[in-house]
Specification:
Distance between the termini: 35 Å
Protein name: ABC transporter ATP-binding protein
Keywords: ATP-binding, Nucleotide-binding, Transport
Bound molecules: adenosine-5'-triphosphate, magnesium ion
Number of strands: 10
InterPro entries: AAA+_ATPase, ABC_transporter-like_ATP-bd, ABC_transporter-like_CS, ABC_transpr_LolD-like, MacB-like_ATP-bd, P-loop_NTPase
Order of helices and strands: EEEHEEHEHHHEHEHEEH
Number of helices: 8
Structural class: alpha/beta
Pfam families: ABC_tran
Strand order of the largest sheet: 6-7-8-3-9-10
Largest sheet: 6 strands, mixed
GO molecular function: ATP binding
């Protein structure tokens, strides 16, 4: 299951720049939210403070009701999967080994290769587990990066412009894949994107400008509603 996230008055400044300025937001467990806003609006900063990779200067972040501590965030980070614009695959490792890489420092109580293969299958790359990143297209490399982000079964997936390096058709495939994986695994998803079409396929759209929330809307109707609309039409 996904986690619920609450931010109350979260601020983060870099010098005189307010990257986040008193941001208060709630994200329901299992929801998929798109974050939009101009370059410098604070999208990446928001993902980083929620993911425990950066600390807010003030305000509070709660995950399932528990305030994130200011120290000892490792346990939190282990429950977060990250997907980036640049896929950041390790070039000398096969697709399978890239998916396994996050588990290297840990003892785990499950069959790690079986899980990595299950995830490569879920992202449509079952046949390419031995391929090196250089032998894969951009969209395929991002699929490997998504499988890698999910290897620890994170209840929270943060994606920072996951389609930024892809053409629009491939980008839409990646977002559809993410939404399908959310159905399957139930994690809460936050996706920073500049693409309004991709954002419209999430179930909520939050807009940021200059570190502040300027819009917050539910977007596409649920699939069952679409079904009904289709039947009526
Ligand atoms: N490490 C840093 N040092 C100084 N300023 C920073 C740092 N990180 C972010 N900023 C500033 O904070 C503001 C918010 O940056 P952020 O990266 O969150 O924006 P963004 O919405 O992700 O933009 P983009 O769409 O370009 O990725 C910007 O003005 C940026 O220059
Ligand atoms: Mg950014």
């Amino acid at each position: 299951m996904g986690v619920a996230i609450t931010l109350r008055g979260v601020s983060r400044a870099h010098g005189s720049t307010k990257a986040l300025d008193e941001v208060s937001l709630e994200f329901a467990a299992g929801g998929a939210t798109a974050l939009m806003g101009h370059s410098g609006a604070g999208k990446s900063t928001l993902l980083q403070v929620i993911g425990g990779m950066d600390l807010p200067d003030s305000g509070e972040i709660r995950i399932d009701g528990h305030a994130l501590p200011r120290r000892g965030l490792d346990a939190h980070r282990r429950r977060v999967g990250f997907v980036f614009q640049r896929f950041h695959l390790l070039p000398a490792l096969s697709a399978l080994d890239n998916v396994l890489a996050p588990l290297l420092p840990y003892r785990v109580g499950f069959d790690r290769k079986a899980r990595a293969r299950e995830l490569l299958k879920a992202v449509g790359l079952a046949e390419r587990e031995r391929a090196l990143p250089s032998e894969l297209s951009g969209g395929q490399q991002q699929r490997v990066a998504i499988a890698r982000a999910l290897i620890g079964r994170p209840p929270l997936l943060l994606a920072d412009e996951p389609t930024g390096n892809l053409d629009s058709a491939t980008g839409q495939e990646i977002v559809d894949l993410l939404l399908g994986l959310r159905e399957q695994y139930g994690m809460t998803m936050l996706i920073a994107t500049h693409n309004p079409e991709l954002a419209a396929t999430c179930d909520r759209l939050v807009r940021l400008a200059d570190g502040r929330v300027t819009g917050d809307d539910l977007v596409s109707p649920a699939p069952d509603v679409l079904d009904r609309i289709g039947r009526l039409g």
